[in-house]
Write a structure and sequence with these properties.
single chain, 122 residues, mainly alpha, 65% helix
Length: 122
């Protein structure tokens, strides 16, 4: 009986530690996703495009919803976040194509938007 109590204590501590690690990973992932969402929204705004209210409301089609969701995932995993921040701080509209993995998506949105035109050279 003496071995059961310490084993139960260790098991309980391991479960609590696992739950804590799981929660911390979830919070960290959420922070990265929110940061990336902010960059993507700012990049779209720089080009005069409104961000989708949700991935499902770009233009009402499943393909457009998938493209928006893919773009936000690309942004969340992008290794050029610092370059993106510098670009957005610069006030420039042109040049994001050199580093942004979503440049194709953004340029397509510009081509599809009435009254919008892609930056020169794009």
């Amino acid at each position: 009986m003496e071995g059961i109590i310490p084993a139960a204590t260790v098991l309980g501590a391991a479960v609590l530690l696992g739950a804590l690690i799981w929660k911390l990973r979830s919070v960290a992932r959420s922070m990265v996703d929110q940061s990336a969402r902010g960059l993507m929204v700012r990049m779209l705004a720089r080009q005069g495009l409104a961000p989708p209210a949700s991935a499902r409301t770009v233009d009402g089609t499943e393909a457009a919803a998938q493209a928006a969701a893919h773009a936000f995932r690309n942004c969340a995993m992008c290794q050029a976040a610092e370059e993106c921040e510098r670009f957005l701080a610069s006030g420039d509209r042109e040049g994001f194509e050199a580093f942004c993995p979503n440049s194709g998506y953004i340029l397509q949105r510009l081509r599809d938007a009435p009254g919008k035109e892609a930056p020169a050279g794009a």
